[in-house]
Write a structure and sequence with these properties.
Blueprint (H helix, E strand, L loop, with lengths): L22 H4 L2 H4 L12 H30 L4 H19 L1 H4 L4 H5 L14 H9 L15 H11 L4 H11 L6 H4 L11 H12 L5 H32 L11 H6 L7 H8 L3
Length: 280
Amino acid sequence: MSKDSGTKDDRGIITDLAADTSYGGYLALDVLLSAQRPRSKHHDEMLFIIQHQTSELWMKLMIHELGAAIAHVQADKLAPCFKILARVKQIQRQLFEQWAVLETLTPSEYLEFRDVLGPASGLQSFQFRAIEFLLGNKNARRLELYKHDAPTHEFLDRLLRSPSLYDEFLRHLARRGMPVPGERVERDWSQPYERHPGVTAVFKSIYDDPATHWDAYDMCEKLVDVEENFQLWRFRHVKTVERVIGYKRGTGGSDGVAFLRKSLDVALFPELIDVRTHLG
């Protein structure tokens, strides 16, 4: 037993490591932990930076997972999506819960360093925009925010003009012979999705007989989970901003809380909620 730890002898632990074979090397911790560069001397700016950097890491994983989910639906394989969307739900939970950490930042503390942010704003997060596009909340005007960054602009433009996860699910149902309206199977994917009673009717047939359409039924419920958690995340964002800055304008030039509240009215998968009114 080791005298200092009271545990099993640790002589088998590998200590002769090159930088690229170590834990820190594998995770590129030298890059990751040096990426926090406060612009003020105020203690709480570190919290603000890490909060947003970790959000971006979780969003990167979410984009990775949603891309895989879309590929499976395109291949008419819904089953692999269930694990992926369950993971997305847990990523969303992390994004939701970490607002509680930022809420420990008081208005007075935030004002100590807010001016060093300049025009930087979460509104400019290209990964958040990518998630919106992948989930179907398309807005071509938002691409103007990225005209200074050609690779990012190209990436988002591609997502804007591609079917969202919901679009691909409707196309999958059409390939199964379900009467999805033609204008929902082929359309201008860069335009926002608009609800259609014919799609609601398709979902009603699925919900009326889940045993026959079990994988589609399960996919519907997974999508409802994703939308609900997306809205909860945005609601928590609104309440956190309201708590910290009240009704001041946002650093990126938006109306702040008023601007964020408008996003709560956006429905990603509208017929999956509409169908509930018609059941029973």
